[in-house]
Amino acid sequence: MHLDYPMKKNGMYIIKKREFDDIGENLLKEYMPDVLEYPKAVDIMNLATECLYLDVKDMYITQDGSILGMIAFDDTEFTGYGIGLDEETLKLSAGTVLIDYSLWGNSNIGRRRYTLAHECSHWICHRPYHSPDKRTFEFRKNEAGSLIACRSENIEGVRSASAYSNYDDSDWEEWQADSLAAAILMPRKTFARAFADAMYEEGVRLRYLIKGDDIITERRVIHRLTEIFEVSHKAAQIRLKTLGLLRECSYDGRYDMIVWR
Ligand SMILES: [Zn+2]
């Protein structure tokens, strides 16, 4: 998949937040258009392995679970830990994804799916930045290495507006991967439609929710979305905020009632 966005000299794309929705939609349109027709979960393993040709492996990446996912941009080796926490060295070919064993189990399905979507997003957005083949970016190979290790706090991450001013390329990489992961797993139009349906079924006649105003309804609506899209509560909550469907307060200080109330 080719991205037609401006790029810095070092191979890093410059992409605006809203543009990730377009990238995600184009990707899904190409590989699994049915998920853009009505709200449903994206088969992210199929997207990773059958569409992007990534090889997905599991191991304990660290002993403390601080890194949830990794992706190799070049053939390399990595030493992590097996099921018994014995050291284990894997040979990784370019396009191999490692997912941490700690994400196995039913309670982590959403976070595991998001981590895999995050690694797919690195593959889509960051190959030019890490490419060992393009001489233009040769220096990146030494500086950034051929592996990206994704820390727990950067997956389904919440970022304060003030943090952006201190971002370096590695922070932007994580932000980009997380933004695209959300757009892939929760496509804007079907997610907004599912939200509107959930609000209707909960008997709420508002266009958006005010965070903390009615916690029970907020939880129930978000729960419906987590079941449809197979994402975590946190991922769905962040997506709602990004799309303006869960707000800190209404713009004018009053509730924005829709016309039929
Ligand atoms: Zn990452």
What does this structure look like?
- The chain is an alpha/beta fold and 261 residues long.
- The protein folds into 2 domains: 19-185, no CATH class; 188-247.
- Helix content is 41%, strand content 14%.
- The chain is built from 8 helices and 8 strands.
- It has helices spanning 19-31, 44-51, 109-130, 138-144, 169-185, 188-201, 215-229, 233-242; strands at residues 55-59, 67-72, 76-81, 87-92, 96-100, 147-151, 209-210, 246-247.
- The strands form 3 sheets. A 4-stranded mixed beta sheet has the order 1-5-2-6. Strands 3-4 form a two-stranded antiparallel ribbon.
- A hairpin with a 5-residue loop joins strand 3 and strand 4.
- The relative contact order is 0.14.
- Zinc ion binds next to helix 3, strand 6 and helix 5.
Summed up, what is this model?
With 261 residues, the chain is of the alpha/beta class.
Structural class: alpha/beta
Shape: globular
Strand order of the largest sheet: 1-5-2-6
Low-confidence stretches: 135-144, 252-261
SS strand fraction: 5-15%
Major sheet attributes: 4 strands, mixed
SSE arrangement, N to C:
HHEEEEEHHEHHEHHE
Instruction: Give the beta-strand count.
Output: 8
Total domain units = 2
Q: What distance lies between the first and last C-alpha atoms, to the nearest angstrom?
A: 45 Å
pLDDT average, as an integer? Answer: 89
Helical residue percent band? 40-55%
Q: Are any ligands bound, and if so which?
A: zinc ion
Instruction: Tell me the number of helical segments per DSSP (H or I, 4 or more residues long).
Output: 8
The value of Rg in angstroms is 19 Å
